[in-house]
Amino acid sequence: MVVAAAVLQSQTADAQSCPTELTSLNVSAPFVVPGAAVSNPSLDCCNALQSVHHDCLCSTLRIASQLPSQCNIPPLTCAS
Length: 80
Description:
Elements: H1 2-23, H2 29-32, H3 43-51, H4 54-70
InterPro entries: Bifun_inhib/LTP/seed_sf, Bifunc_inhib/LTP/seed_store
Keywords: Secreted
Pfam families: Tryp_alpha_amyl (PF00234)
């Protein structure tokens, strides 16, 4: 029971820190915006990406990929 409570508390703390971690990725905007003149990520961008927990980033991408269906719009298809 104590282990389950510790895991739940850890997951809650991770969920609360995820928005802050994602905000740190704003330094990557010059690299990820389509048509951006910058072709390689900066050291700040790479460091910010490295500091984001894997689960936070994956959960965010999973949730974002579900938005079209939840908003009743056609699914997004992206070219390589």
